[in-house]
């Protein structure tokens, strides 16, 4: 069968249209993928900054409570009852008075009195500095404060603050050290989910220690390892992750 020039031109135009359409579809898909990746990156960075802001605000609250405790005469005298009352009212997990050698004079909970508080933050406070940080605390230190049952790994994550104690001549007589343990505590992740949307989780040593990710039985995803791609990251991550049987 022979085709005339017109038929050949129509076929060529149709073929070109198919090729152009295919290229356009591929280009559109690639553009959309790039746009979505950029959007995911911006959302991840924004969410990370928002969570960091909430963490910092909570840390400031801890620092203020520890500073206020330092003004109490009962606390300065190492009164366990006073420490326990301030910790309870302020929502602190632990609060301790240490002497100039770093030994615990008294603390709000646990049986660590008389032992040395091996903390670089406590040492800085004894040197006259007021400090605040998010820090991993060793299990032994948490056990001395009666908090070992809240930690499943070798370390716990806490927001801590320490401030020097001085006499009337401005000589350092010790320090006060306190903080909030974030393992199995949910106020921070709940605030993050409420303010930023989505789900929130805290990860320490590759394990989820607190989250708003729901389980089918109504509980929360906690005390489980995260995917290797999410563990111990120093850069934002966006991608697919499955937690509690749900893809995110």
Topology of this protein?
Elements: H1 5-70, H2 73-76, H3 80-90, E1 94-98, E2 104-107, H4 120-126, E3 131-138, H5 139-144, E4 155-166, E5 172-181, H6 187-196, E6 201-204, E7 207-211, E8 224-225, E9 242-243, E10 246-247
Antiparallel strand pairs: 1-2, 1-5, 3-4, 4-5, 6-7, 7-8, 9-10
Helix pairs in contact: 1-6
Through-space gap between termini: 58 Å
> Would you list the SSEs in sequence order as H and E?
HHHEEHEHEEHEEEEE
Count of beta strands: 10
- SS element count, helices: 6
| Average of per-residue pLDDT values | 85
Please describe what this structure looks like.
This protein is of the alpha+beta class and 248 residues long. It contains six helices and ten strands. It is elongated and about 110 Å long.
Any descriptors?
10 strands, 248 residues, alpha+beta, 6 helices, elongated, 42% helix, 3-stranded antiparallel sheet
Q: What's this model, at a glance?
A:
The protein is built from six helices and ten strands, in the order αααββαβαββαβββββ.
